[in-house]
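Researcher: Structure for this, please.
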Amino acid sequence: MKSRENIQTMTKIAAVTAIVVICAWISFPMPTGVSTTLQTFGIALCGFILGPKLSAVSIILYWAMGAVGLPVFSSFSAGIGQFAGPTGGFLWGFLFLAVLCGVGERAQNKVILIALAILGLAICHFLGVIQFAALTERTWMESFVLVSVPYLIKDVASVAVAWLLGNRITAALKKAKMA
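Model: Predicted structure, token format:
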């Protein structure tokens, strides 16, 4: 029985990681160099479906695939250099977003869930802004206006839709005795 549970867990991690990759590929370049993607949706969905521990595994797997050269990041990019580039802060922030969405979902309290999802999103944007500012020699405020503000509404909506869809997927997995 334990073997079946391990296979189901690995399958869920692989499937959700694949969703994150597909969401990264849905990318629209912007003049700032920070593309509009569905990554926030995929990362939040990862947390809501897998919970904090398994979503961390999924994000680390995603990072590892990109680091070794698989084109899994936005705009089909890859390589370890992506973590040190202007958009690398967002990559680091994905771990916080996924884990905090997972913790919020497990809390089974909507106020806590919303607070943790917003905190995860804020950390993701904060790390993205800091790294962008440092590498482009812009002020934090300029960077915030360029690479955070234009994406906030989309990202909040993405997290909300991910929660709604995540609930349905989790219910279906439970019904199939896979959760």
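Researcher: Any notable elements?
Model: The chain has one domain: 2-175. The domain at 2-175 is CATH 1.10.1760.20 (Arp2/3 complex 21 kDa subunit ARPC3).
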